[in-house]
Design a protein that fits this description.
By secondary structure, this protein is α/β, with parallel strands linked by helices. Among the domains are: about 5-175, Spore Coat Polysaccharide Biosynthesis Protein SpsA, Chain A (Alpha-Beta Complex); about 195-250. It has 11 helices and 11 strands. It has helices at about 15-25, 40-50, 65-70, 90-100, 175-185, 200-215, 225-250, 250-265, 275-280, 285-290, 295-430; strands spanning about 5-10, 30-35, 50-55, 75-80, 85, 105-115, 130-135, 140, 150, 155-160, 165-170. The strands form 2 sheets. Strands 1, 2, 3, 4, 5, 6, 7, 10 and 11 form a 9-stranded mixed β-sheet that branches. A two-stranded antiparallel ribbon has the order 8-9. Strand 1, helix 1 and strand 2 form a beta-alpha-beta unit. Helix 5 packs parallel to helix 7, helix 6 (about 200-215) runs antiparallel to helix 7 (about 225-250) and helix 8 (about 250-265) runs antiparallel to helix 11 (about 295-430). The longest helix is centred in the C-terminal third of the chain and has 139 residues, at about 295-430. The chain starts with a strand and ends with a helix. The model is unreliable at about 285-290 (pLDDT under 50).
């Protein structure tokens, strides 16, 4: 029996794309649309194609809604899309017929971005794949902007980028829409931020431009790949500047309010706040010399502005000093660790030197023993040579004695035989 598929789409004010998105995903056994309170007729279009439509409050990013949409799905396999993502015609049959046949829990699908209305394979964004089809429980959604998903399984099949199966992402029609989304995404506190690098903002900007240009396959500086690489770098720059702004901790709205009051002071003769006359007595001498209350107020506001600017500068310097101190502490810890490592190495060297001395002594004793053994071997060899010579002489004597014995046997044995034969015969005749 074929396994079944649930697909969900997160939608907001994209009626012009939503119908095409839902038609391309209509092969799913269950199609769900979660609409984030669209003000166009997205919900009406969703009702024509979806099995279920849920209206939820608007939120600035799609990541906050996916977990809820997943909870609505009834089937084992889940496919998820945004309302500006359209599956290619080859995708439906491939994904529907392959359910249960893959030895996997997660499939990656190639994603083709259309930025400024165009998809260009020379640009930095190609090739790119996303984990979009999964078995229930194999993926966990993360609310962090651009945080992706948390994979709960390593059984993954990658659909080839040249297979024709893909998602067409009709994302940014012009520069204005890119900047609008950049501002919205980088304003989210829970987002993946650009790495700050060494804190040099200008160098950071150049590095990001170079980084995204290096990912293109066309180094022309006045063509589409360069334009979208620059847009991508702008996103990182805006993100880094917002982080820099937060690091400084300056309240721009408060500074504007002070500047506004300073530029348009209250006219003379208007009602003064109660207690000002009494407070003047406690002011420093150089303030008490002000010619009028309005001059005093202007001077105070100027001082406040200067104090705020000084405070921001001091905060920035303090933060830099803190980072420097932290870096020095880290460096000191590294130096302490290096010193300890060198001390340990020195102890090991001393121990090795001692062991080498002992080994040298043992080697000397062994060498002396070997010399004595060589002398004994030489003496033994000399004795063996003498023994061999003696054995050679003995062998010669034995050879001579053997020759004499053979001669004796040849000459005297017949005589002895005759002698004993005669005596035996004589003895035999005497007995008779």
């Amino acid at each position: 029996m074929r396994e079944k598929l649930s697909a969900f789409v997160i939608a907001y004010n994209r009626a012009s794309l939503l119908e095409t998105c839902l038609r391309a995903a209509s092969f799913a056994d269950e199609l769900i649309v979660v609409d984030k309170s669209s003000t166009d007729n997205s919900a009406v279009i969703a009702a024509r194609y979806a099995d279920r439509v849920e209206i939820v409050p608007w939120s600035p990013t799609v990541e906050e809604t996916r977990a809820f949409a997943l909870s609505l799905c009834r089937h084992e396999w889940i496919l998820f899309l945004d309302d500006d993502e359209i599956l290619s015609p080859e995708s439906g049959p491939f994904l529907r017929d392959g359910l249960g046949e893959w030895d996997a829990d997660i499939l990656t699908i190639p994603l083709r971005h259309y930025i400024l209305g165009v998809h260009d394979e020379r640009a930095y964004y190609w090739p790119e794949v996303h984990h979009r089809l999964f078995r229930r429980g194999a993926i966990e959604f993360i609310p962090t902007v651009h945080g992706g998903v948390a994979l709960q399984s390593d059984r993954i099949v990658n659909i080839p980028v040249d297979s024709g199966v893909c998602i067409h992402h009709l994302s940014y029609r012009d520069v204005t829409s890119w900047i609008e989304r950049t501002n919205r995404y980088t304003s989210s506190p829970d987002r993946i931020q650009a790495m700050p690098g060494d804190g040099d903002l200008i160098r950071f900007a150049h590095d990001q431009i170079n980084y995204w240009m290096q990912r293109t396959t066309d180094d022309a500086c006045n063509d589409y790949p360069a334009a979208v690489a620059l847009l991508r770098a702008i996103y990182d720059m805006v993100d880094r500047l917002k982080a820099w702004e937060a690091e400084r901790g300056v309240d721009g709205a408060a500074m504007f309010r002070i500047a506004r009051e300073n530029l348009a002071p209250e006219p003379e003769g208007r009602r003064q706040r109660a207690g000002v006359a009494e407070q003047l007595e406690t002011f420093p001498t150089h303030l008490a010399d002000a010619t009028s209350l309005e001059d005093l107020r202007l001077e105070m506001r100027g001082m406040v502005v200067k104090l705020r600017a000084t405070e921001a500068h001091l905060r920035e310097r303090t933060e830099a000093a803190r980072k420097s101190a932290q870096a020095l502490i880290t460096l000191r810890d590294k130096l302490d660790a290096t010193t300890a490592a060198l001390a340990a190495a020195r102890d090991e060297l001393d121990e090795t030197r001692s062991e080498l001395g002992q080994t040298k002594t043992v080697l000397g004793e062994t060498q002396a023993t070997l010399g004595h053994s060589c002398e004994l071997l030489d003496q033994t060899r000399a004795r063996l040579d003498l023994t061999v010579t003696s054995l050679s002489k003995t062998d010669l004597k034995l050879a001579r004695l053997s020759g004499s014995a053979r001669l004796f046997i040849r000459q005297y044995l017949p005589k002895l035989r005759d002698h004993f034969s005669r005596r035996f015969a004589y003895a035999s005749s005497g007995q008779k």
